[in-house]
Amino acid sequence: MDKEDINVITKRKEEGIKIPLEKNVQAREGTNYFEYVKLIHNALPELDFNDIDTSTEFLKHKFSVPIMIDSMTGGSDLAFKINENLALAAEELNIPIGVGSQRAGLKSEMLAQTYSIVREKAPSSFIMANIGGAQLAKGFSIEDAKKIIDMVKANALIIHLNPLQELIQPEGDTNFKGVLDKIREFTKALDVPVIVKEVGAGISREVALKLELVGVSALNVSGYGGTSWAGVEQLRAEAANMKEKAELGRLFWDWGIPTAASLLEVVSAVSIPVIASGGIRNGLEIGKSLVLGASFTALAHPFLQAAAESKDAVIKKVKSLTLELKATMFLIGAKDVKRIKEARYVLIGPLREWERSLKGK
Ligand SMILES: Cc1cc2nc3c(=O)[nH]c(=O)nc-3n(C[C@H](O)[C@H](O)[C@H](O)COP(=O)(O)O)c2cc1C
After folding, report:
1. Which ligand 1 atom is at minimum distance from the Cα of 277?
2. What CATH number was assigned to the domain covering residues 3-359?
């Protein structure tokens, strides 16, 4: 690969960090719907707050809290620094960490280091490799998958599905034909579990069922309500003077299944573990995710902001989320993560209607 191609990739990767950091590309018209989940206050928790235990298991590994660093970056100098800070924090806190799409890492050794820094700084952590579904359709092979897994000595491989993003992205790949068959091939051929995620538009019950049937080990709904990739790509398309794409980006900025609704869709359909992500911004929303049946939660944008600052800022963020989760557990009377699922809740407004439509089918 020549230097020019590497420069193009590096520029795209830098924009993929700088736009979410410097511009507001969060959901504009709607929310993640967690405000429509009401947990029932327990006035008699019969618990000592200090005894509350947030540790949990996921894919046969033990973690201190059900919070992971969602897949984000790699492929540039800024990505190297961010990945380093995220990895140091993940190692210190014993939480899982995802890296960003690794296609760039296969192109050059120099770019590979922006991902492998994560394993270097987090030698005992649960690390998740990452590649896009659109790449699978384009011929990304099992050998390639083994290479990106090896690049970070990954404990799992994440395949992200991002048709909305590819549609708006100036250089996007819009052929998603054959992706499910390729995912089936990967789940059979690889030694590590395969996790499938969206990137902010959510997963429906029908899609979740198909993915479980082809052998996927866990799903991350990554629903609507947080970072909008239609938004990021709209700004990039505008800067590149691609008027049609920019117009599409504007129209579909707020497209997607709100995270809480996606969670209801997916947990009602499958028995594999489900990760809630997409606009999760505090420990109360983490608690609500677990009450609705998620096994784990993930955040991207808040950790990006923290990692752009320092490793300590990432640690501080996880600690404050953990305190808020513990407060939620105390107020619903759940001593540990398993007991969170027993808590009663009420769905109101649009989320209740969403649940009704799910039950009606
Ligand atoms: C800077 C940035 C880069 C991202 N890159 C990837 C990626 O390479 N692969 C992926 O699966 N998801 C990627 N995502 C999507 C996130 O993992 C997540 O699904 C989405 O941002 C919603 O979470 P949030 O609202 O907490 O940001 C990225 C998100 C951000 C903010």
Report:
1. 23
2. 3.20.20.70
